[in-house]
């Protein structure tokens, strides 16, 4: 086997650290909203159960925020460390949303998280409630600026190249912030985060229902999470599908690769499942099930829409950008798209099942549903990872679509040995952290809801969540 | 406008050390000022609500460099590669140990995370100090702004000394903070630490100031900021020996800020000196973004930075009370 080059290692490192970072980020965003809702309910109706739940899920939130924050630092540093040529080229455009993210969103999230955690009993109740909402706001604003930066890589707008052609320079920040890819991708990410928070909350609640621990309390979070999941998972699917149409406009190759569509078709059928056909145009795939017209509908939004094939698109790119191959890894595209969509659909079905049980008031006794809901906790992690593989791998070989190639973006001054050292270090560290985080999450998720000591009724302060 | 952004980046790094400096100090000292687990928790909880917000200053300083001076960010972060890996490891380990230490009982669990926190809190300011020192002292950079040196090139006496100075200052700053924010034996031990850290910090800052001026070799009124640093740290030493805790903390904050700022003052208008050829040094001119991007960022800084100062200031006000062992006994860590 050929030794891995600096470029391969740097890509692997970026993929590994980004996927890892994004296991925690959507959970933070989703849970922060759900915890804010729980605390609001407690504030509104004074029901002690909601206070207990707020603190119970608050601990799970905090365990995850810690990892999300520190692994975010790696993401920020990594552009300069591994991708200095990229950073020089795009810093003018790409750096601005990152800096604004720090100033306008991350400060908000981090500062108010401290206020929320340690402000129990010290801040007036109303203001304390506002702090958790500000944490949720900060977290979702953070994601907005990051998505604006990422969307610029998918579909660069609001820039021009400098005279020497060595730098992309920002000319219109509003174009960057109203990039259609950004608008839809951001909505998709927010919904995916809600789904993640909802599935985790449902899974934890189901675990407790299954063991008859604190049933009346966890019944409340089971119904809250199902109430969030039904619309969130459905709309996430629809928005994702529309995002596919948008990306298809600007990144036709990405969509064609996601369907392993080598030749141009009109109308196009959608293969639910296929074996082979990912390597090159001559490979004949074994299609198992095909749905006529569905691909036309998904990719273009019309019944008989035309989808360009990979072979003609590649030829067209070679004319435009010079010799080379402009086709991403088709197998990854095909399967990541399907894993995302199929598992997303599964989550929607699970939540419908939950609605049915809630209406019949049998959710406490539905052992099969509870078992399914516990295992479903794994789904959003797979779905999100697949979603990012689809987005990022599908942009290859470009780092910025049509502007700069990934292979020209790696740091010239860095050696393969350095990248390998750092990759090994982070693999080890992230592995340990995942284990510790997993152990702690499971431990705290299985705890009974804590008695909240002297609470509000007599005006007694609730104890802060200390270290 | 590039000059303004250089100034803002300098302020962000300075703000980071003034705030996170005492968090680093507390991280290093929590095992010194606290003999029992409860006492250690007192020390850690004194920064509990604050450290996360403080660390964002680093995130913004980094992102600000990326946006305003992509050339500087690219050369520095790729050039100092292995040091950056170590720094990230230190920051990650330290960050999660705050959360994880208290999440389980058992002395082995707590000792492990406590030890990692101490190590991370020491390593982080040291490495940043070495990196900042190297910006000024100069590292091999070629005509296309690429770093051509090796990891060992970063380990020169001046830069290592800058790292040591920042660590000593963090210890001093942290001890005056704990003394101000806690009560009982933790406070007494913090005061004792401050009394011995003060003179060491004063000596370190004097040597740092002189050495920095010699290395910078730029003349002018640049000696003023290091002079402020020396005076503030010396006055802080005096104040802490007199038991004036509030004053001592304010002065270590000034001393810390002026020390970090001295480095940037000595650099300007360069941002990263080339030891290969002076003409190949990176400057605010040859690494910056174009005027439009800088304008956008200036607007966002003008809107958000005052807000940040306002709500972070409010946080310090909310948590102004001293904490002691009896504050924690009732509420076991969740």
Please characterize this protein's 3D structure.
The complex is a heterodimer of chains A (467) and B (334). In chain A, 69% of the residues lie in helices and 5% in strands. Chain A has helices at residues 6-45, 48-82, 84-118, 125-154, 173-177, 180-210, 215-250, 252-258, 294-300, 310-321, 330-359, 367-375, 378-393, 416-446, and strands at 159-161, 168-170, 270-275, 286-291, 398-400, 404-405. A two-stranded antiparallel ribbon of chain A has the order 1-2. The relative contact order of chain A is 0.14. Chain B is mainly alpha-helical and 334 residues long. Chain B is 77% helix and 1% strand. Chain B has a two-stranded antiparallel sheet. Chain B is globular. At the A-B interface, α2, α3 and α14 of A face α2, α3, α4, α5 and α12 of B.
Summarize the structure.
The complex is a heterodimer of chains A (467) and B (334). Helix content of chain A is 69%, strand content 5%.
Mean pLDDT of chain A: 89
Give helix and strand order of chain A, one letter per element, not per position: HHHHEEHHHHEEHHHHHEEH
Fraction of residues in β-strands of chain A: under 5%
**How large is the radius of gyration of chain A?**
24 Å
Strand content of chain B: under 5%
| Strand order of the biggest β-sheet of chain A | 1-2
Residues in helix, % of chain B? over 70%
Quaternary structure type: heterodimer
Could you tell me which chain pair has the largest interface and how many residues each side has?
A-B, 78 and 74 residues
Number of strands of chain A: 6
Largest sheet of chain A: 2 strands, antiparallel
The helix content of chain A, as a percent range, equals 55-70%
């Amino acid at each position: 086997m050929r030794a891995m080059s600096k470029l391969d290692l740097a890509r692997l490192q970026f993929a590994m650290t980004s996927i890892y970072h994004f296991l925690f980020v959507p959970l933070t965003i989703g849970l922060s909203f759900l915890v804010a809702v729980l605390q609001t309910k407690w504030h509104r109706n004074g029901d002690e159960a909601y206070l207990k739940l707020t603190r119970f899920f608050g601990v799970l939130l905090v365990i995850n925020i810690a990892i999300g924050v520190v692994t975010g630092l790696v993401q920020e540093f990594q552009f300069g460390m591994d991708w200095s040529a990229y950073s020089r080229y795009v810093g003018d455009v790409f750096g601005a949303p990152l800096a604004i993210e720090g100033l306008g969103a991350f400060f908000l999230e981090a500062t108010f998280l401290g206020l929320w955690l340690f402000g129990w009993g010290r801040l007036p109740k109303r203001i304390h409630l506002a702090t958790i909402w500000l944490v949720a706001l900060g977290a979702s604003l953070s994601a907005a600026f990051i998505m604006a930066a990422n969307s610029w890589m998918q579909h660069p707008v609001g820039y021009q190249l400098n005279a020497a052609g060595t730098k992309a320079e920002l000319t219109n920040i509003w174009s960057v912030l109203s990039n259609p890819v950004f608008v839809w991708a951001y909505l998709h990410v927010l919904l995916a985060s809600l789904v993640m928070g909802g599935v985790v909350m449902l899974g934890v609640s189901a675990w407790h229902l299954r063991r008859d621990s604190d049933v009346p309390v966890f019944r409340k979070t089971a119904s809250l999470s199902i109430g969030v999941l039904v619309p969130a998972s459905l709309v996430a699917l629809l928005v994702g599908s529309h995002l596919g149409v948008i990306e298809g406009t600007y990144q036709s190759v990405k969509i064609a690769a996601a369907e392993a569509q080598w030749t141009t078709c009109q109308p196009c059928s959608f293969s639910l499942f296929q074996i082979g056909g990912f390597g090159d145009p001559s490979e004949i795939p074994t299609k198992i099930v095909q749905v006529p017209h569905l691909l036309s509908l998904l990719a273009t939004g019309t019944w008989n829409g035309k989808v360009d094939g990979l072979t003609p698109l590649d030829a067209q790119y070679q004319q435009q950008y010079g010799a080379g191959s402009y086709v991403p890894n088709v197998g990854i595209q095909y399967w990541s798209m399907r894993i995302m969509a199929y598992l997303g659909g599964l989550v929607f079905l699970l939540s419908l099942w939950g609605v049915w049980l809630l209406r019949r008031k049998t959710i406490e006794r539905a052992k099969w549903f509870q078992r399914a809901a516990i295992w479903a906790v794994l789904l959003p992690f797979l779905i999100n990872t697949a979603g990012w593989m689809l987005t990022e791998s599908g942009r290859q070989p470009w780092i910025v679509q049509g502007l700069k190639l990934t292979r020209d973006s790696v740091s010239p001054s860095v050696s393969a040995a350095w990248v390998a050292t750092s990759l090994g270090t982070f693999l080890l560290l992230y592995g340990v952290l995942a284990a510790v985080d997993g152990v702690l999450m499971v431990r705290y998720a299985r705890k009974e809801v804590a008695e909240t000591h002297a609470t509000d009724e007599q005006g007694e302060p609730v104890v802060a969540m200390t270290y | 406008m590039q000059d303004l952004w250089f100034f803002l980046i300098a302020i962000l790094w300075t703000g980071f050390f003034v705030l996170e400096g005492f968090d680093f100090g507390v991280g290093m000292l929590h095992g010194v000022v606290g003999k029992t687990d409860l006492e250690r928790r007192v020390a850690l909880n004194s920064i509990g609500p604050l450290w996360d917000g403080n660390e964002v200053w680093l995130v913004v300083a980094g992102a600000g460099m990326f946006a305003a001076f992509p050339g500087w960010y690219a050369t520095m972060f790729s050039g100092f590669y292995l040091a950056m890996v170590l720094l990230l490891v230190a920051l990650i380990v330290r960050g999660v140990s705050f959360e994880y230490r208290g999440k389980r009982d058992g002395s082995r669990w707590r000792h492990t995370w406590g030890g990692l926190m101490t190590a991370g809190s020491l390593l982080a300011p040291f490495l940043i100090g070495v990196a900042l020192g190297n910006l000024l002292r100069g590292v091999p950079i070629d005509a296309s702004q690429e770093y051509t040196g090796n990891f060992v090139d970063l380990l020169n006496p001046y830069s290592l000394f800058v790292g040591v100075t920042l660590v000593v200052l963090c210890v001093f700053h942290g001890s005056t903070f704990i003394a101000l924010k806690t009560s009982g034996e933790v406070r007494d031990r913090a005061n004792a630490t401050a009394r011995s850290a003060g003179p060491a910090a004063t000596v370190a800052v004097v040597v740092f100031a002189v050495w920095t001026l010699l290395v910078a070799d730029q003349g002018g009124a640049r000696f003023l900021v290091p002079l402020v640093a020396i005076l503030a740290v010396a006055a802080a030493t005096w104040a802490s020996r007199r038991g004036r805790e509030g004053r001592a903390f304010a002065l270590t904050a000034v001393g810390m800020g002026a020390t970090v700022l001295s480095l940037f003052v000595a650099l300007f208008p360069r941002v990263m000196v080339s030891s290969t050829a002076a003409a190949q040094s990176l400057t605010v001119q040859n690494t910056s973004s174009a005027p439009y991007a800088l304008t956008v960022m200036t607007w966002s800084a003008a809107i958000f930075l005052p807000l940040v100062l306002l709500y972070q200031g409010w946080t310090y006000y909310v948590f102004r009370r001293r904490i002691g062992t009896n504050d924690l006994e009732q509420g076991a860590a969740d």
